Amino acid sequence: MALTPDQRETLGTAVRRRRLAIGMSISAAADGAGMRRNTWSGVEKGTRDTAELTYSRVERTLGWQPGSIETIITGGQPATDPAFTRDDPGDEWLARLEEIRDNPHRSQHLRDEAAQQIERLRTLLEAAAAEDNARQTGS
User: Fold this and answer.
1) Predicted TM-score (pTM) above 0.90
2) Per-residue model confidence as pLDDT tens digits over 55-68
3) Buried b / exposed e along 48-84 (16+ C-beta atoms within 10 A)
C-alpha cells in the first residue's frame, strides 16, 4: 500500500522520535532493520515509502509491537514491546577496550592506553547514570 505524503510524514516523525528516545543512531537503526542508512533517513524525513514487508523489521528495531506502523499510519500511537531491550553502547566500548587491554599480542603502550580509556569511560557512564537518576527522581 502506497502511503500518502501525510502518512509518510507522520510515520517519519514517529520513527525519528522513537529512535532518538532509545538513543540509537541512524546507522545502527538502519543496520538493525537491514536497510541502507539513506533509506532509513528517507523514512524519517517522510520522503521515502517503506515497503510493508519491512514494517516488521523497523518495528523490531525500534522495540514496537507488531502492527504499530499500521497503527501510526491510521492515526494511532505505537505500542512498545515490553520484551524490548537495547544493549548499552557503552558496554560494547568497554568490552572492546578490555579485549585490547588484555591481549598480550598488543604493544604495552596500546594496552596501557586502553586501560586508561576504560577508566575514563566508566567514570563518564557512572556520571551519566547519576544524572539520569537525579532527573528521574526529581532531585
Assistant:
1) no
2) 899 999 999 999 99
3) bebeeebbeebbebbbbeeebbeebbeeeebeeeeee
